[in-house]
Every structure is written in structure tokens, then in C-alpha cells.
Amino acid sequence: MRLPRMITVTLAGAAVLLPVAACSSEEPAPGQAPEAATVAPSEEPTEEVNAHPFTGEPYDKLKPVLAVKIENTAAGKPQLGLKSADIVYIEQVEAGLTRLMAIFSSKVPAKVGPVRSARISDLHLTPQFGKPAFAYSGVQTKMLPFVAEASLYDVGDTRNPGAYFRQPGRFAPYNLFATTKKLFSAAPKASKAKDIGFTFGDAPAEGGVDKKSYTVKWPAARFTFAWSEGKKQWLIWQDGKKDMAAEGGQLGAPTIVVQYTKTERSEFHDKNQSYTPLVHTVGKGSAIVLRDGKAYKAKWERESEETGTTFTTMSGEPMNFAPGQVWVALASRKPVIP
Predict the structure, then answer these.
(1) Domains of the chain, with CATH numbers?
(2) Pairing between strand 133-135 and 66-70?
């Protein structure tokens, strides 16, 4: 395992936020950003600190990794715990819908959910984290041998039922939540966070195009990421509505990666004979990286399932992300027909 990279960062001081203008729940029109507060920056001395491999933010100690499958349709919203995730992957599932896999390590919420079932694409993503704890709410019988052989500690609801509970006020199957402390207790040897290829730091000097919003589509889902200058985040809309967190506020992240992948039909399907997409995250391809109100064309490469994914500019330089949470939208240029 490679040692964590060192970068020079400026520790932010206190900032004064002015009131935020109210905005509707509709996603912003193309070219229009949400109204946001202004921030008064303060100047602080810089010092060299450890940069977390998942977020680029300072850390004292690397901690174990937990991956959780999260529901991502209107019936399961608002989700709990996503604000604390280091990385959030958006994956296509049956019928052209999407589901999330949230990666936790540097910050871990007390509870997370709604927890949903795993997919074959998850098992190709987890090995880059070593052997993380993996929380999910079951898989189809045909996939059980694949889970057993995967590089992960199975802390799903079948093997570790005591970590899960039904959230009052929600209906099944969108009411299954998990207590993260109990999930980690069931995987005491889960791998700690390590380098997965991400680099953080200043944005490339060239190549960025000003963008107020950027939309990514799947056959039956649509995400719009709109830059908020005040929050220094890309706020998230799904299917025309604000993507709100159960903890309060709209979901958003400093960096959004739209990673274009080869997506094809797998051998698995649901009870309605709708086939599960297999998202190929090993190989190479193109990407769009959104940060600081700009969109950058980039390239991605992942040599094997055990290694991470590197992102570079079109000229071959490291494509640095902005420190903080990263969302990775695994998109296909040619939609898969269920």
C-alpha cells in the first residue's frame, strides 16, 4: 500500500455567511445557477498536513472502510448518512434506474439508509478499497457465490441482522436502516482507507469551461449538478427535484466526476426479467470533472480491480479534485435497454 500523499492546504478560518435567497424545488434551467450566499474568506497561514486519500482533507489517522448500498428512487428519499460519505457512486440498475454505493471512512454517521440489495457491479468496485465492510440488504440467490468470493467483509442484513432496524414512518422495502457502529463491529479487520488513485489540489490552469449546471441521464433517471458559488459545491437535483438529505439541506459536493463506462447486460435479472447492467470500471475511458464552477474534459484508467482509478487531463497531467466529498456518476453514452 502506498503511503498517503502530502499536499499543502490552507486551513479555512471562520467565514461569515450572508442570508441565502429562497429558491424553488425545481432544478435550475440550463445555464442558470441557484442563488447562494456569499462568503467572506479569511487569510490563515499554510501548513503541511496529511491529505486523506478519499477526500484530500486533513486527517489524523486512517480508519476502516465501509461501503453501503443506498436506495435512490423517490420512494426511498430522503436518504440518511450521505452527507458524511467520502465518496458516492451512482450506478445504473434494472429498468434504467440508479442506486448508490456510499463509501465511509474519514467521517461515519451513526445511522445510514435506506439500505438496499447489492448488484454485480458493486463487487467489481470494492476490491480497490482492499477488503472493506460491505452493507446491503440481500442479493438474488444466483449471486451469492460471487459475494462469498468477493474482496469484502459481508455485513449484510442476513449475516448481521442485529445491525439493521426498520425506520418508523417509512414503508418496506424502503425502511431498512443500519447502525454503522454495529456494522464495523462485525468486520473488525476491514481494510483502512488507502490510495485509490484520486489526486487533490489546485485545478488545472487550462482546459476548464465555465458551467453553471451539468446534467447526466440514464434511461430512467436524470441528475443535474448546479454550481453554488456561496457553498462551493455542486448542488444536486434528481429528476427535476432537489436531492435533500434526511439530516437537512440539499445534497452537494465540491467535485462531481462523470465517468463514462462500457455498460452491458449481465447474466443477472430481476423477477420481472429486467436484466441487471454490468458497469465496467476496469479499463480506460473519458470523463467530465466538475469543480470550482468549471467542467474539465478528462481521461480515466484503472488497470485492475485491485487498483484504483486515475484521472488525468487531456494533456496527461493529474486531474486534481477539490478537497471534500466526491460523487462519481458511472454513466453510459449509449443507454442500456433493460
Answers:
(1) 66-185 (3.50.90.10), 197-331 (3.50.90.10)
(2) parallel
